[in-house]
From TrEMBL, chain B:
Skewed-composition ranges (Low complexity): 126-135
Lineage, broadest ranks: Bacteria, Bacillati, Actinomycetota, Actinomycetes, Kitasatosporales
Region (Disordered): 115-145
Zinc recorded as keyword: yes
Pfam families reported for this sequence: SWIM
Alphabetized UniProt keyword annotations: Metal-binding, Zinc, Zinc-finger
Protein name, UniProt field: SWIM-type domain-containing protein
Organism: Streptomyces colonosanans
Start and end residues of each SWIM-type domain: 58-94
Keyword RNA-binding: no
Molecular function GO terms recorded: zinc ion binding
Amino acid sequence: MLTTHPSNLDSDLEGTDMRATAAAPDTPAAVPWEEVVTVALLGTDRRTPPWLPPGREAPRALLDLAAVKTVRRRAGLRPAPAKPRPEPAAADPRPPLPPAAARRLAMLLSNRPGTAGGGRRGTAPDLMELLPQWLALANERGFAAPPEALPALLDAARGRTDLRPAALAFAGPRALWLARLNADWRFALRSAPGGGSEPPPDETDRIRQLWQEGLFAERVALLGALRARRPAAARALLTTTWATERAEDRLMFLDSLRTRLGSADEPFLEQALSDRSRNVRATAAELLSALPDSALAGRMAERAVACVAVDRTRGEPTIVVEAPHQCDAGMERDGVVPKPPAGRGERSWWLGQLAEAAPLGSWAARLGGRTPEEIVALPVADDWRGELHAAWCRAAVRQRDTGWSRALLGPPSAPDAGGPGAVSLAERAKLLSTLGAEERADWVAGFIAAHGLSEAFQLLGVCATPWAAPLGRAVVDALNIARDAGSYPWSFSGVMGLAERCLDPVEATRLDALTGIPDETEDTSPGAGSYWAEAFQRLTTTLRLRAAMQEELGAVPPDPRPV
Amino acid sequence: MTQQGVRWIADQVLALAPDAASRKAGSKLGAAGPWSEAGSSDEGTVWGLCKGSGSKPYRTVVDIADAAGPAYKCSCPSRKFPCKHALGLLLLWAGGDGTVPRGQAPDWAQQWIEGRRQRAQQKRTAGGSASGASADPQAARRRAEQRAERITAGATELEQRLTDLLRGGLAAAEQAEYGLWEETAARMVDAQAPGLAARVRELGAIPSSGPGWPVRLLEECALLHLLDQGWLRRERLPDGTAATVRSRVGLPGSPDGPPVRDHWLVLAQYDTSDGRLTTRRIWLYGATSQRTALLLSYGAAGRAPELALPVGLTFAAELSAYPGAGQLRAALGERFTAPAPAPVRPPGVSADQAAARYGEALRDDPWLDSFPVTLGRVIPTPAEDAWQLADADGDTALPLTPSAIARPGLWRLVALSGGAPVTVFGECGHRGFTPLTAWPRGTGEAVALC
């Protein structure tokens, strides 16, 4: 609080009559304030000090005195001594946002979820959903965040972990400075490893000191940032204290090796296979299996390949499977979990884990030099097809193998691509993520053209945004077909929501024709037409808004900064 | 008015919203999607059709040309005022992206506008004659005397109540029921002294306000006593002090100061609400006169106060002061320009000077809880569980009030500063400093903190 002026000021009321009302008792100014308060607390009936007139006049005189003292105390208030000022935040060298873009950001941030009235969305765009895109654009163009927007930005990122990397990159050094002052934003200090928002100090001594003395979050951030720039140095740093870390911490630190994983990491990971903690062992095994040349991958390949063969004695070459009969100590050390989850046979459980961890390159030699496409096309005896293909899918995703991914996906228009085939939609989505953006978009466009939108949501989710032109057209055409077929738009609300965020804004003009209310026919659902018009209106409004967002942020700088 | 041709900014529109829900609903409608046949005229009218859930779109029209504040008309059934459609339409118009072109108002909009302007005209002529007719000085004086007598009776009763309290001791007040104070407050309302009533009501809440309550209760009782005594002896007070007492007791004053024409910078705008009434305070700073003035406007439940001015912008207008020594309240007279950006910043003082300003202001008005000041170069600094504004060039600091620390504006201020000096406008008082608006180093725009 403010402190009271030590010296007694002359009353500011001097010269007015009010002063006179207070000046009656003997030496009122000499009475300490604390004593006045004590007398007031006890009451003048109980205690009448000598500086008050006795009897009926006492309470009034006490009030007079308290009034003078109150005003005097307030008038004499002085500032408090200053505490040590906070260390200034590091400068942000990026250029400030254009004013229109800054206003847009404030608008997007003020539209927080939870404040919505709920219910139907009407024709107004969902602003919060546009924030990730806005952040990506702003980061691409290299703008600095307006400082006053940082609290709202950090609050938004606190509630949505998916926003954090982009939000923190945009927020820049001042957000980390703020996070140290507000416990609500501590996540910023441990988030975004390698996000580059705070490059680790280059001096080895300081790194070592922070690593040995820092908080857990700081250490995770340090390791992540170092790993992104100098993988070997990060591993070496981890080795220095590995034996003394707690099991949960070892697991988190091991996880950071996923970034820039390479064969140089193998000895360390191989050693971690004998770790005391089962979770650490499993993670080490998983990381090693992602290195096709590792000894573990070789061992797994040996085991997996032994279970699978081509039987030429049948009418056509067929894959036969002989799942492992036991899970020995060697398999367990290599990360195979011996006990299957409830409802699964243990032999197929073991087979799945072996095939998943074996390098995909080892199959061609075993299966007659066939290409991935040919192997996938082979019939599989005794209902092993699902198990085997699912394991290959997981392997293709883990090893980022585009050839196998392509083969397992098959052509998008294939009849079983839409139905419950051997490869589920979730697996397809993961396989797609290993392909290049253009190939991914083309495959999904083909899928939608052949099978419609009802199964497309997950697949669309892995496509790069904004959607490539063929994909965007396929989605709009399919929505148009769905409308003409007479269903309600909320059956497609997921895809609609994605389209609002991902469709290229240039498509807005093509959509204008769809925003009218179509005539109702016998086979359309009642009122569906106007709901569709509303949904398409929201879509075009959102696209226009996104176009405006882009324009406000200006063109991508000709010399893009390295990411 | 010369608002024609000048577009508002979104903040200005949103300040008209009666509540947060309307503000949000209005922002959603501030996009081209649901609107059709929207347009605006040079006379300051904006209109449009907004598609709602029904088959017929709502007809929305807003007249912003009136000096008394904008007027709205919408065919929607909402009882919010203005409704979200009116807000959305104004936002769309403020956005200025060509979806609200200049044009000729359609008949339905034109009819309403003409009807409205005619009524306003009639009222103006009628109002002129009415005030002449009602000016029966005899009757007015009689009414004023009657009221003064009631207030005197109320003040005397209140004095009795306060002396009883001090006789029995404040410690007893802790057990006393809240209802006792409420009853006394009601008696003060009956005595037509709303200023006394409000103070009495606050007394009731002090015993439960946490550690240190006896000091606060004694202070407030003493100041109430001072006000009672001031009223009872008002004839013997200097004119200015007597006017301050009258306004503190709750007698309405009229802004009879000479009009001051200036370019007024909007320093801050914030609302407080007691459930029944929303009070909006707008602080202004005159670029030439260097005066700081306070505009008050009120909104009954569910309505926003009509006056809304965007923080950081400057407009030319005439202000007339209300009477009373140390009173900063003024009334907004004629406005000559719409608010526009201008490189005006209030001159800043140090933390020491700010505390001294408050002390000096108490000379004219001892009941003052705080005084508006601009701190020139201060750094928001954490101090244990609290925050302070530390002088960048000295070793003193003003602590922030507990309520200011609880508000999100604190973090906007801290973020804006980043550990560097900023200029902060706020209210400095015995509870500490309440920051309301801040300016970054250099030439950055004002950032509202409330």
